[in-house]
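Moderator note: this is an archived Q&A kept for reference. The question asked for a predicted structure of one protein chain; the sequence and the answer are reproduced below.
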Amino acid sequence: MLLLAIINGTLRDLGYKKYLGDLTAHQISTVTLITLFAFYIGYIINRFPPTSSTQAIFIGIIWVLFTLCFEFCFGRYRGNSWSVLFADYNLMKGRIWVLIPLWILIAPYVFYKILS
């Protein structure tokens, strides 16, 4: 998932961000990443199916914890303040990045139910 996120962010920053602006580019990037993650998570859950709904939920919890830990630890390592790191989660300012961890949390369960 990290590789997909890096590719997605690179395409946004080097491609369409200069034409659409920061907010719109981040919104498109969020939707694009959710779609990419859907294909990837669907493949993983199909290839290595959880044995139960509980296990699928547990997988989502672990994945989202790792994702948030990486995102915030790496962001702090790069010198970003907490306010900068939390800015992408501000729905009142049109930032919809919170949908990424929510999707990572529920997607294993969603695909487990679809594929079983």
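Archived answer notes: Residues 2-115 form one domain.
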